[in-house]
Amino acid sequence: MEAAQDFMARFGARLVDNGYPAIPIWPGSKKPGRFQAGAWCDYPAWTRHCDRPTTLIEVETWATWPDAAIGLACGTLVGIDIDVLDPDIAHRLERLARDMLGDTPLLRIGKAPKRLLVYRADVPFSGPKRAPLEILAHGRQFVAFAIHPDTGQPYVWPEDSPLTVALDDLPVVTEDSVRAWLDAAIALLPPELRPATLESPPALMLSTSPQRGTLAAVRSALAHIPNADLDYDSWVRIGMAVKGAIGEDGASLFASWSAMSAKDVPAATAKAWASFRPTTIGAGTIYHFAMERGWQPDPVLVLDGSTPQDEVHPAAGLLAKLAATPAEPTPTVQTVPFPPQDFFAVDGALKLMVDYIVTTAIRPQPVLAIGAALCALGVLMGRRYRTPSNLRSNLYVVGMAASGGGKDHARNAIKEAFLAAGVDAYLGGNRLASGAGLLTALHRQPASLFQIDEFGHFLSSVVDKRRAPKHLAEIWELLTELSTSAGGTFFGAEYADQKLRPRQDIIQPCCALHATTVPETFWAALGNGSLGDGSLARFLIFQSDNDIPDRVKHPAALDKVPPQLIKALKAIAAGVPGHASGNIAAAATGSMIKPTLYTVPMTLDAEALFDDLDADITRRQRQAAHSGHGAVLARVWENTAKIALIRAVSADPQRPVISLAHADWACIVVEHCTRTLLIEAERHIADNEADALHKKVVRIIEAAGDNGLTRSELYHKTHFLGDRRNAVFGALIEAEEIEMSITTTRTKPRTVYRRKR
């Protein structure tokens, strides 16, 4: 089998230039896919590309996905799929298509002699399927550039290809012309290859009474009949058929189907339904239209609603077996994970600090307290201790909670504790005004903890290099560089006037950052590139599991710092005897004293755990190659080692040893933070403007919980969409991101939108 290739990276942009609606195909398959959280998964929203051109921004994003293959969405594009293994017959059918539809330059071969001819529709239409022949039209797609899953070889374009022929240069076909070809082609097939004729049960053939169906069968069939832009007569015919098939039980079903169209007016739909008086139309019409569009009824479905309900269904035995088989769990919306119980199992100085933060809070936030405590203890030991691999304890921690949820308290508690212990020299400023200011602070005090509130607003002013002033943009770049400079020397910038602006070198800087923010502003400040460039990967995200915790009426006094905590902080700042120099700059000369660090040993079983972690992360990185997730995963081992170091020193500052328990707990914490980062990034960070709008709407609906939002409520909350509302709502429903339900009331149908679960 030929190795997978980066087809999207090689050909995607050229296809867009030629007007083709390219879509990403899951490697090794024929179905659309997307790459997220380090793995390929389904892409339910791919059909949006049937109605609009693919953009270069989308292709550039997909090109970063590993081994992404290419499909073409049908709408303006039409594929004539000849799924015949007899070479002579396949050739005759191709010749017939060229004679009747035009001599197209585009012929694609996947598994020869099967073939596909490509044309352009004058007006998009839904194509019928009469196996082994199929018209791939609106709502369908075909693979263009990929490795065929059966042959193991690339798909072939033996003549021209979409890379050399523009979409506008293809022969034009109409729905009538392709149906005429299909009828003629079926006649050329030998009897054994012709599709079976649909024979309706006798009860459905009666012309003097409605053709009765069942609710389950009609619902299944109706799902295969698109309603993007049907004409009025067709719309009425479907409504009449639904009512003829299942009577008033079909009211909500027809209303839901009708609402898929941007032209739908619920009141008019309800009025039309009340006026329908079907006599000779019913389930047969629905089944016929659905089968033309690829519907294949499940064998357990009862199609004939005229069968007495007390009769034993012929598939009763099979149904009983299916009922006895445990159903697959319903997929749930991926939300921020709750921390496992072991996440809170801390001891030593870490426990003392966490307890102090939590017990003095009006609204306790234990998750945020752990992140803050790790960061605070880390800066005290930053130039005192190191791991055997020379990693230090400098952390970048972001604590997230809703406004008014108590996220700010940890910062104030750390200040009080450091002041009480006499280690307040480690506290940097509450604001970073410029890159030069950051370096000056670290040059003065090489181990510094910067605690920044409203970090999301701060990020919005520094991460965009094109818009941010230079002195602010430098902050983000320096934070990225300083995080990896803790084990060596950071060399400052060179300026022309060395007297006024001498170079600021910092030996083994320990720059720690403890930031708090509300989630919305934090994610809004970041773009899709922040995952891939590794800047965001350096942050540990501690997001509250309870945005607004219960209020504590009588918390412990913040200014009464426990003596045990004061003693522990002093012990960590003092370091191991004989390794005490280096945490303060030499005041007389401004030069830096090289620290004498204590290397914290690691037990053999802890080493084995880190070896296993390294192998696991390497595997996950390879799976996530060319995606932003790879950069995040690249920091997992490093952050785990840092936290294990902090945990060990917290337990015994005099003779610390990284044990298996310390390493295991560090794995739990970092895995939780990494999952939080990847899940929230997927929810908030968009590939493009359209994706950003879609994600914003999903979050609005998600916030409403199980009650959902009525149509008027959702319209009010999504005023920013303007006239794009229906298109966005339709795309999200189609992608199964949200769901819509319609219930009848005394006055008019009530439409409610909910997050799909």
Keywords:
757 residues, six-stranded mixed β-sheet, PriCT_2, 4 domains, DNA_primase/pol_bifunc_N, Prim-pol fold, DNA primase/polymerase bifunctional N-terminal domain-containing protein
Describe the structure.
The protein is α/β, with parallel strands linked by helices and 757 residues long. It folds into four domains: 7-193, Prim-pol fold; 208-311, no CATH class; 347-494 and 503-598, Rossmann fold (3-Layer(aba) Sandwich); 695-755, Arc Repressor Mutant, subunit A, CATH 1.10.10. Helix content is 40%, strand content 12%. The chain is elongated. The protein starts with 6 loop residues before the first helix and ends with a strand. This is DNA primase/polymerase bifunctional N-terminal domain-containing protein.
Largest sheet: 6 strands, mixed
Q: Segments where pLDDT lies below 50 for 5+ residues? A: 196-210, 309-334, 582-591
> In total, how many beta strands?
22
The CA-CA distance between the termini, in Å, is 38 Å
So, CATH architecture of the largest domain? Answer: 3-Layer(aba) Sandwich
> What share of residues is helical?
25-40%
User: How many H/I helices?
Assistant: 26
Q: Which structural class best describes the helix and strand composition?
A: alpha/beta
Radius of gyration: 32 Å
- CATH level 3 topology of the largest domain: Rossmann fold
Tally of separate domains: 4
Oligomeric form = single chain
> How much strand?
5-15%
Average pLDDT works out at 82
What is the top-level CATH class of the largest domain? Alpha Beta
Q: What global shape is seen?
A: elongated
